[in-house]
TrEMBL record:
It holds the Pfam family EPSP_synthase. This is 3-phosphoshikimate 1-carboxyvinyltransferase. Residues 7-419 form the Enolpyruvate transferase domain. GO terms for biological process: amino acid biosynthetic process; aromatic amino acid family biosynthetic process; chorismate biosynthetic process. The keyword Mitochondrion does not apply. NCBIfam families: aroA. Catalyzes the transfer of the enolpyruvyl moiety of phosphoenolpyruvate (PEP) to the 5-hydroxyl of shikimate-3-phosphate (S3P) to produce enolpyruvyl shikimate-3-phosphate and inorganic phosphate. It is found in: Cytoplasm. One of its GO terms (cellular component) is cytoplasm. It catalyses: 3-phosphoshikimate + phosphoenolpyruvate = 5-O-(1-carboxyvinyl)-3-phosphoshikimate + phosphate. InterPro entries: Enolpyruvate_Tfrase_dom, Enolpyruvate_Tfrase_sf, EPSP_synthase, EPSP_synthase_CS, RNA3'P_cycl/enolpyr_Trfase_a/b.
Length: 430
């Protein structure tokens, strides 16, 4: 699908979609349990992949008419899947359920689409092997398709922390239902650390204790996943909120109110401070979970995305509108997402007339040297690139057409409907 966006001003109220990160963890945690009800879950392409994996391990995920997920779990004992686990485009699914597969008494095969099959899984495979399982890439390059045979029996493992925090999440979630638990030593500094905080928060809500140690993380074995009252409610998603706040900051003369923005462990809550530092008028009522934002003259700033990689596309677009340079640092791990998001934003914004300087670990957007022009751009099969480019289209001179816009279904299926409701003028076409 192509979406063409005309220059537009936005105003009004918008509700944040539920968190993708929390939903993935909640679906799998309910799978590890005897069962649970997950309220306010994000039902997207990625989270459906995690639900499908739970089904294949012996659970059952049923979505009711009101969007509630009624999940029957496999009670800490995943079965050997009767089919290949297709993780689609979801890196979170692949990493989290690879560790689940290592608990099964038999062999599981995991794959995904072409993008996912290019993403690194090697450190997690090595960790599973060190714990007594058998795990390998069919192509011998640390990338899917993956073959995993369990059950693992070890209790200590070391793993790098600078490739993906999802490796640690996967091992913590699986380690809780092993007999003796798991100690994870980090070989390098942990990047995207708030995502592990999210994991520990979800585990606690499901009655499972995990903790940070001097060397890394640990989780006791023999625990049961059992949320209070058998229910769990997913909070709003700050990665998605970033696009709504940015829309208000660059095109919200009359103001935009974002609802569903209660505080949580999500690192991407940093977007509130980032937009405010750049000069937008921002007011976050944490108790009510609302954020009001309106347009003001924006100034470039320096921002580290070490712990917030998903914010890079949003910040890059804000930088294209701001005066001066916006310097985004600690960004190398952002290259290993659905696409290389550093290069993708530099190249696609470049088509629109934005000057950038790309380094291996950084992206600088030169706002003073840029004039946003409406052109045809490519979403690169990446939901976050699509949404960031749509923001640029709100303030570009002329129409901006985004190819592959359907990929917003991964995390924010109603994104373009929400933009329209806020006043954006856009057209969809095949």
């Amino acid at each position: 699908m192509n979406v063409t966006i005309s220059p537009s001003r936005v105003q009004g109220r918008a509700r944040a979609p539920p968190s993708k990160s929390y939903t993935h963890r909640a679906i799998l945690a309910a799978g590890y349990a005897d069962g649970a009800t997950v309220q306010d879950a994000l039902w997207s392409a990625d989270t459906k992949a995690t639900a499908g994996a739970v089904d294949l391990f012996g659970g059952d995920v049923d979505r009711t008419d009101d969007g509630t997920l009624e999940i029957e779990g496999f009670d800490g004992q995943p079965g050997v899947p009767a089919d290949v686990i297709d993780c689609e485009n979801s890196g979170t699914t692949m990493r989290l359920v690879t560790a689940t597969a290592a608990l099964a008494d038999g062999t599981s095969v995991l794959t995904g689409d072409s993008s996912l099959r290019s993403r690194p899984q090697g450190p997690l495979l090595e960790a599973i092997a060190d714990l007594g399982g058998d795990a390998y890439s069919t192509r011998g390059n640390g990338q899917a398709p993956l073959v995993v045979t369990g059950p693992i029996t070890g209790t200590e493992v070391s793993i790098p922390g600078d490739v993906s925090s999802q490796y640690i999440t996967a091992l913590l979630m699986a380690g809780a239902v092993t007999e003796e638990g798991l100690e994870i030593d980090l070989e390098t500094e942990l990047k995207s650390a708030p995502y592990v905080d999210v994991t520990i928060e979800v585990l606690e809500d499901f009655g499972v204790e995990a903790r940070q140690t001097d060397a890394g993380f640990a989780v006791e074995g023999g625990q049961r996943y059992d949320p209070a009252g058998g229910e769990y409610r997913v909070p709003g998603d700050f990665s998605s909120i970033s696009y709504l706040l940015a829309a208000g900051a660059i095109a919200g003369d009359e103001g935009v109110r974002v609802e569903g923005a209660q505080p949580s462990a999500q690192g991407d809550t940093a977007i509130v401070d980032i937009v405010e530092r750049m000069g937008a008028d921002v007011d976050w009522d944490r108790e009510d979970g609302t954020i009001d934002v309106s347009t003001a003259a924006l100034e470039g700033i320096e921002v580290s995305v070490e712990d917030t990689p998903d914010l890079l596309p949003t910040i890059a677009t804000l930088g294209a509108v701001a005066d001066g340079d916006t310097h985004i640092t600690d960004a190398e791990h952002v290259r290993y997402k659905e696409t290389d998001r550093v290069s993708a934003m530099a190249e696609e914004l470049g088509k629109m007339g934005v000057e950038t300087t790309e380094e291996q670990d950084a992206l600088t957007v030169h706002g003073d040297e840029s004039d946003l022009e409406g052109v045809r751009v490519d979403g690169r099969g990446d939901h976050r690139i699509v949404m960031a480019l749509a923001l640029a289209g709100l303030v570009a001179d002329g129409e901006t057409t985004i190819a592959g816009a359907e990929h917003v279904d991964v995390s924010f299926p109603d994104f373009f409907d929400t933009l329209e409701e806020l006043g954006a003028t856009l057209d969809r076409s095949d």
